[in-house]
Amino acid sequence: MMYYAITVFVVAYAFIISERFNKTTVALIGAGLMVCLPVIDSPDVFYSLESGMNWDVIFLMLGMMMIVSVLRETGVFEFAAIWAAKRANGSPLRIMILLMLVMALASALLPNVVSVLLIAPVTLLVCDRLEINPVPMLLALVFASNIGGAATLVGDPPNIIIGAHQGLSFNTFLFHMAPVVIIILLVLIALSPLLFGGFSAVNPDRIADVMSLKEREVIQDRTLLIKCGLVMLAVLIGFIVSPIIHMAPSLVAMLGAGVLVLVSRLEQSNYVSHVEWDTLLFMVGLFIMVGALLKTGVIQILGHLAADATGGNALLATMLILVFSALVSGVIDNVPYVATMTPIVSHLAPTMAGHYHHNVLWWSLALGGDLGGNLTAVGSSANIVMLGIALRSGNSISFWEFTRKGIVITTISIVLSAVYLWLRYFVLS
Amino acid sequence: MRADEIVEAFPVVNIDSPALDAVRLLVDHRLNGIVVVTHASDTPYAVLPASQVVRFIVPHYVLEDPGLAGVFTESMADHAAEKLRGKTIRDMLPKKPQRVPVVDADDTIIEVAEVMSRMHSPLVAAVKDGKLHGVITASGLLAAALKD
Predict the structure, then answer these.
(1) Chain B residues within 8 A of A116 when measuring between CB atoms
(2) CB neighbours (10 Å) of residue A179?
(3) Given an 8 Å threshold on Cβ–Cβ distance, is B65 in contact with A209?
(4) Of A218, A303, B25, B35, which one is least surrounded by beta carbons within 10 A?
(5) 3-class SS at B60?
(6) Any A CB within 8 A of B72 CB
(7) For residue range A167-197, what is the model confidence (pLDDT) as tens digits?
(8) Does A134 touch chain B (CB under 8 A)?
(9) pLDDT tens string B5-29
(10) H or E element: which one contains B34?
(11) What is the set of domains in chain B, with CATH numbers?
(12) Which helix (H) or strand (E) holds B1?
């Protein structure tokens, strides 16, 4: 059975990486084979705490997707982006920096793809009015999005997977991930004149154009905005106090989504408009395949191999996971990678010797998985969406144009992360 | 009644003509679409409905996020047609070649109406002996149907 499980998993993974077939179809066929062979059965899939479906991940993602569907209707993020651009008084560099901050904040609270879909059109609008090249700004924003998403439990799918698997709360994520994310973001902003500068001089008439944009017009339903604002605040408080009230973040998100649906009175087609059923089914397929590897002992063997390779040295394991995760996530989807690595790290962690912070390997995996998305143009879904928006606007960004900058930014991010992990969890721990 | 009897003489534009020329044609003759031909052939290459031309005065970022349509001042919005400057009709057509709404000159008005409704086109090109013979508009077709 072990060999069957390995064969199905490796072949399915190869098809997913090749991107020649729909990844959800491949994951579901792989899951179907695991069940039919039968490597894994119904009680394992649905009820096993170790090898079963991670319902927390599925429902947290579903809840957040529903919340986003309603939140998008308010126009609040477009408002914030135009407002920020106007505060920059028409200076392209200042506009870029303020939009990077808005993007990073939005990405910490919402899925990165949604943040890009909301803020990239505003960026194009501002660049069009200023008659400047939007490409440097779009690049800076998508890098900021991938960095910002790493800060919270709900910002990036790898964090959701790690958090749900390990029972890490919203606060724990924020406390351990946000500091390094803020440092990386500040360094990126400091380097942005070098990396993305060179904007042409802007005509004062064009600046006046930007200053006259009517940002209030994007908020078409103020009552909906107030209702959504209150519910979002309640959801955030729910995430923060979830360990105290003993309610998993997935339930907080689902309750928030339910309340939003009730108070917004939107049509069903609206409140499920941004639920990515495809992604949720992909996760289901992945969990079943990884569950089969767990049940047959493959993951345990990989965990032992990883432990042997690192010799029980926690610092070495931390750095290896960080760098390896960044490299792999730069070229393949970080969701299947982190879903596979999570149980391996779970088996690796107890083998580490000495006194070290017991969650350091998880922060290393999350940072590598999230920040690696900036490495290449295909490193994250947000990159692909941003490139599509740029292309449709007549400003195509080539794979190498993206990747040249991506390599620099990922290297800086990973070096800063490595220093942070070493200082915080080994030197100062 | 046959298509031949309800065809109208209609301006035809070349695919590489400036987009603004096509817009002027639509405006001057109050047309709901124009037939596009190529240098190489007299047969219709595409039918460009006015609604598709209108789409081109909407900035691409508003198409991405319709909520942004309201942020422009009146004077900015009044310059929307400038987006067409430098563009040709080829730029306004879909990248993938589309089926052209074409009928034969001896088709009945039911056949014409079927093509028009199936292809959601406000006008169809009528062809005789492989060459463009004229154009049938939705209003011309309905007028013919009422006459019967």
Answers:
(1) none
(2) 13
(3) no
(4) B25
(5) helix
(6) yes
(7) 889 999 999 999 999 999 999 999 999 998 7
(8) no
(9) 888 877 788 888 888 888 888 888 8
(10) strand B33-37
(11) 3-147 (3.10.580.10)
(12) none
